[in-house]
Each structure stands twice: as structure tokens, then as C-alpha cells.
Write a structure and sequence with these properties.
The protein is an alpha+beta fold. Helices cover 24% and strands 27% of the residues. It folds into two domains: 138 residues; 160 residues, no CATH class. Strands 4-3-2-1-6-7-8-9-5 form a nine-stranded antiparallel β-sheet, with no helix packed on it. It has an eight-stranded antiparallel β-sheet with strand order 12-11-10-14-15-16-17-13. It is elongated and about 130 Å long.
Length: 388
Amino acid sequence: MNRKQFLLLLIAVLIVGGAGLLVYQRANRSWESSATTIGGKLLPGLAINDIAAITIQSGTNTLHLARKDNLWRVTERGNYAANFGQISDWLIKLADLKIAQSQDVGPSQLGRFALLPPGPATNTATLVEFDDASGKPLATLLLGKKHIKKPTSPQPPGMGMGDEGWPDGRYVMVGAAATSLAVISDPLDNAEPKPDQWLNKDFLNVEKPGTIAVTFPEATNSWQLTRASETNDWSLTAAGPKEKLDATKISGVTTPLSSASFNDVLPPDTTPAAAGLTNVTTLTVSTLDGFTYTAQIGQKQTDNYPVTFTISANLSAPLTGTNAAALASQASHKSLTDKLAREQGYQKWIYLLPTYTIDPLLKHRADLLVVETNTVAGTNATAAATDK
């Protein structure tokens, strides 16, 4: 081998070795990138404390949650208070989500994963956007179809989710123009633009009722129950000589609106007529500690009643002084005053209360009474019929 041939061979070896090294380095970088992606956070730069607005869009429905006056509110419900705990937990979950799988996809493949651009068409994504207080976008997330975990063996009847499997994650993309698809290990079931599901359902709590009255449009159906203390029995106001309360029948009406909740609220500009608040039934509850709740109950709509509230209180002045009794009286008075202020905030809304809360209160007067049966008369009547 002459010198020229040796040099050519050496150059060839260097070229081949360099190419191999380049391939190795690229493969190594690719592996490192994949290792960083898989198991990494889906939204690593999401600063949840900076988020002041959330938009969720699915199909033709859009929900806006906005932080106003230091409270989260539901825009589509007239800025009614949102469930802070629910939003906080959701944002913390999103910030901690890890990528379980990742792959690049082309535009033609997005429909398979329900990740087409949001809109009314089929196979479109649910869009979630996060903005700061100035309206600056912080992050955009596209939620596709749910990832289904298939059972490893046939499921016995009545056990598990059958052969179809069950959702254990979701296909997602970060950024409106993203080309990389990820799978997360949470289906994010509550990421829906349904205003009623994001409302703060904390509500009024009627305690220690002393008088309960229901006034129907048909006056003969109306009634009022009273008691002097929590240990006294209930009595029917203006009871007739043959009217006797049935203890089993009144059990459903003697704890009205105790730990009540609601299904939804209507926007503040909804008129009473549009809400079904015509020909109303009035519920009035006076408590032993001075509160009076007046509820106007409209016509039932599917599984709800539209209801408005007026709340007042006649609170005794607290004892003065610094002894134990006076301090306890002052603390109790403050607690009741705070409760009144909080509950009077419910007065400007029309609530949709579930039928299981309202139906037991709408018993007619006759439905609360013992049914008298004249056994002797019935026996004589039977005997008379037999003699004939």
C-alpha cells in the first residue's frame, strides 16, 4: 500500500467513524429528550398564583371563571361566587400532571384523538385557557378523548367496566398550535363548561325553627306549626275541633331548609315570570334565635323549584360586661350578626332548589292530620247491610 492509498483509507475511516459518532450523539440526544418528556410535567411553567381567569370551551358551550374582588366567580351566572376549593384543587392538579406517553402527530391524525380545533364539529377538543389579571395568556391546553384502559382478562358479569375498559387518562396537547400529543394519567372529568358545576354551593342553614307556615294560593290548604322551645311538641295554629297533628306526617316539614343546597342559580336579570315565580307558595320560618326566612316558591320545573328568599333577624342586644356570661353573650351575638350578613347576600338571586328539598314542605293542611276512622259506625253499617 503506497502512501496515497493509506491516506485515502485513513480519510474513509475518519468519515465513517465521524458519521457513526454523529448518529450516536443524535440518538443519545433523542433518548435524553424522550426521557425528559416522559414523566415530566405537562405544564412546567404554569404559575397558578398568577391565574386570574379560566376559559373552558367545548363545542358551542363556553364557561368563564374570573377572579374579581379576591373571589372566584362564574361569569355565566352573573358573577355568582365560584367554588374556590374546587378551582384551587383543580389548578394544583393541573400543575402537577405528568406526561405518561408522548408522540408527534400530523394534522390528519388529530381527529382520531378528538383533538381537532375547538368548535361545534365532531372530534373537536375541549379548550382550556389560563390568563393573568391583565388578560395575558399564561397557558393553553387542548383536551381530547379519554384514554381507555382495557382489562387484562374478561370481566365477570357485574364486575368492573366490562370488556370495554375504563378511562384512566386523556389525550392532550399543550398550546393551540402544538404538534406533540401527550397522554396524562387523569381523565379530567370535571373540565366541562357547565356553570352549575362550578358554583359555590354553600347556602343558608335554618336552625332552631319555632314557627313554620306554608301559605298556598288555595287558602284552605295553608297551615302553620308552632312550638315554644326545642323540647316542646309542635302544635297546629287555629286547629279545628277534629284536627289533630299526625307526628309521623309532620316529621318531613319540621326541619325546613336545614343544611339546604341548590342545583343552580339564574342570572340576576331573569324576571320572576320567566323563572316560573307566578302563583307562588310562600314558606315562612321563624327561628327561636330571632331569624325569619321567607321563601317564595314557584312552579316545579323538571327536578327543580325556582325559589327566592327574604331574610331578616330580630336579635337581642348582648349583655355588657367582661364576666363569662357577658362574653358568651357577646360572642353569640356576633356569630348571629355575621350569619345574618352572610345569608342576606342570598336575597338577590333566584335559586333552583331540588325537589327532594321542597316537596316535603308542600304538604296540604289535610296531609298533616290524623285520619279519623269511625270503627263503631263502620261495624254498624256493615251489620245493617248484612241484615238486609
